[in-house]
Amino acid sequence: MMMILSTDKQQIISRDSIKKLLEDKKDIILSDKAIDEIIKILEEKASSISKYAVNRAKNKNRSMILKEDIESYMLESGD
Questions:
Q1: Which of 1, 42, 62, 76 could form a disulfide with 57 if both were Cys (CB 3.0 to 4.6 A apart)?
Q2: How many CB atoms are located within 10 Å of the residue 57 CB?
Q3: 28 within 8 A of 22, measured Cβ to Cβ
């Protein structure tokens, strides 16, 4: 699956996606502002990972991002 990150402030991750992630938590209600904050954090993290992976691939003279590029970010950042 390919995901293209936009440069504008339009949300990439939908509110419905966040609600689905938590659908088994029937006793918890998320406010729209809480969902928006989760989306904001996830999109910022996705952007950071993507930028890192692009730079790493370029530094290794590749035109393709590999799983190892993402794993390298996770190791380096401690996430």
A1: 62
A2: 16
A3: yes
User: Could you count the other beta carbons within 10 Å of the beta carbon of residue 45?
Assistant: 13
Model confidence pLDDT, tens digit, residues 23-67 = 888 788 889 999 999 999 999 999 999 999 999 999 999 999 999
* 50 touches 5 (CB < 8 A): yes
pLDDT tens-digit map of 2-28? 444 444 567 789 999 998 988 888 788
Q: Please give the Cα distance from 51 to 54 (Å, whole number).
A: 5
pLDDT at residue 2 in the model: 41
Give the C-alpha separation, 36 to 13, whole Å. 9
What whole-number distance in Å separates Cα of residue 75 and Cα of residue 79? 7
Whose tokens are 């290794």? That residue is 60
